[in-house]
Specification:
Length: about 300
């Protein structure tokens, strides 16, 4: 599908939408298309809520955020998100906070259709005081001291749709990722529907030649969208580098609500799609984010003689 078709088909007002990708392969282009289509009242689930989430909140798409980190990825803050949570301006944002591992456990429970997932890491934490969904149950097994043990659990997350970005897929949706792999596969399995956005479509034999890179198989994918450079300003390992200048600039843009609205008007509403967005940046800009080769050694999977 095109990005426009995929978002129109699977992202509905009021939906719970997971956007996953850790450090690289962030589905920015998908977030921009959700903004263009004017989706409202979304619950966004993203472990590391960052620039694209700030933009979606500013555009009025998001009423609830479920996350374990909020920030501008080592380069500053998220102005719109902070205004909404700290001051309720211009409207409040509901925020459910977990730890990173707590979010991983929620995806694991969701992908396995479990009622909850146990973890020890909330003991002694302040998070249970701000999130009533962090609860304790009595383990059916004795604890380390042989006595009954109270252990924290988190609920599953089952998004209506998960959107991830990846390096490549075949036409059926067998999706390959390398570099940091994050929690994308579990987020896809936890969802009712999934959209995979890729840098390129490759022939079947390319995927079959290196099957261990297939993190998301075709049967879990509802739509494949080809969108080169669709993770900008984050990077896609092996395709283009991180736009550090934009990360630094975003703190200043998002701090000023008027300047943020002007940015959205020019770069999201003012572009028909991500291809126009990337063309507007210009080839000289993209040349500055080009990466050189760092090839993996080939492996011999073997075959029957």
């Amino acid at each position: 599908m095109s990005m426009r078709e995929a978002v129109a088909t699977y992202v509905r007002d009021g939906a719970t939408v997971s956007l996953e990708g850790f450090t690289h392969l962030i589905p920015t282009a998908a977030g921009h298309e959700i903004i263009r289509q004017g989706r409202r009242d979304l619950t966004v689930v993203r472990m590391t809520a960052d620039i694209v989430v700030d933009q979606m909140i500013a555009a009025g798409c998001v009423s609830r955020l479920v996350s374990s980190f909020v920030g501008n990825s080592s380069a500053g803050s998220l102005g719109e998100l902070r205004r909404r949570i700290e001051r309720g301006a211009p409207e409040p944002l509901a925020f459910e906070e977990y730890s990173h591992y707590g979010m991983i456990c929620r995806y694991l429970a969701g992908s396995q259709r479990l009622p909850f997932y146990p973890l020890r890491s909330y003991a002694g934490s302040d998070l249970p005081a701000v999130n009533s969904d962090l609860r304790k149950v009595t383990s059916p097994y004795p604890g380390p001291d042989g006595e009954p043990e109270q252990i924290y659990v988190v609920p599953p997350v089952n998004p209506d749709v998960t959107i991830i970005h990846a390096q490549r897929a075949d036409r059926r949706g067998n999706t390959q990722i390398w570099g940091l792999t994050g929690i994308q596969a579990e987020a896809v399995y936890a969802a009712d529907r999934s959209i995979v956005v890729v840098e390129e479509i490759v022939e079947d034999h390319v995927v079959r030649s290196d099957p261990n890179r297939t993190l998301v198989p075709a049967h879990a994918v509802d739509a494949v969208v080809v969108c080169p450079r669709g993770a900008h300003p984050s990077f896609a390992q092996g395709y283009y580098d991180r736009d550090n200048a934009f990360y630094r600039a975003w703190s200043h843009i998002s701090k000023d609500p008027e300047r943020l609205r002007e940015w959205l008007a020019e770069w999201v509403y003012g572009t028909a799609d991500h291809a126009e967005y990337t063309a507007k940046l210009g080839e000289e800009f993209w040349a500055g984010l080009a990466v050189g080769e760092a090839l993996s050694e080939p492996v011999n999977y073997g075959r029957r003689l």
